[in-house]
Amino acid sequence: MSASYEAKGYGIKTGMILREARQFCPQCIFIKSRHQLYTDFSNRIIEVMRDFTPLVEPVSIDEAFLDITGSQKLFGPPIDIARQLKQRIRQEVGLTCSVGVAPNKLLAKMASDLRKPDGLTVIERQDVGAVLWPLPVRELFGIGPRYEQRLRRLNIFTIGDLARYPVDALKAKFGVIGESMWFSANGVDDSPVDPESLDRVKSIGHQFTLPSDCAGDNLRSVILELADLVAYRVRSRGYVGRTVVLSLKDPGFKWISRAQALPELTDLAADIAQTALGLLMEHWNTNWPVRMVGVSLNNLVKQRTEQTDMFGEKERQRKVELACDQVRRRFGKAAVLRAASLSSSPKSRQDR
Length: 352
Prior knowledge:
By secondary structure, the protein is α+β, with helices and mostly antiparallel strands. The protein contains 14 helices and nine strands.
């Protein structure tokens, strides 16, 4: 799930299976994850941040944005606030952290990544060309391996190449995402710090990292299981969703993610599974091996308008899935399995 800086020095990467990691570094120490401990420390750090400003937007368990525009009369200029923040986290929580100071969220994120661990970096608007443009385009926040490959085909290798590329050509090639990448490369970001961002659930998903390569019918079975788990979690939290996303990673860490919008909102595993399997058939040769599989339901909303079909199939399916929910709540999530799963038990997988 994660690797220390020392382990990364040996070539160990996030998502690498343990056997491969041991080959890179036989003396490596493997530690079982303790998510609740990490959550507790994360909450303690967030509380320290909120002593400086109420405008704190957590974006993950170990990252957050702070808007300190209104804090400077109390705590001094931004660089002083950053130093005070680092000092208090070290003294009160016992951890080091890297801080980026910049006029917007994008540049602050880029700045925080430039010097790790325990770094403090300031990027002003006029620094974008000198500091960011020489970096590989993959270093730009939001650019993954798939877009990196597509940009390379346009002779875009650095962030500067992207910033200087005609924005209209990028928009024609990639749509709105192309325009967004161009603005990011030029250091432009007007998104506000949103303290309530995590209170709005946008998607619910689940993924498996498989202990061995998976293809064909076994892969379809995994997708069916994931659809059941996602639908159960969606219903448990009172949501319905519009978009199904299927993510796949092969043994060589090649990653694809594809999405399909549904004709109506749903919380049923049958709808999620059917759409995910359709995405699989359309975008992936089922004979190709897969090492990680993920399914999620996106564009969630709390309100749900019931739409009954002419023959009552949806209602019958809903009753079946609600009955399965009752069994799972009483006996555990693995208490109900599809027949297709009996030849490929989820217990043999590493649940992520």
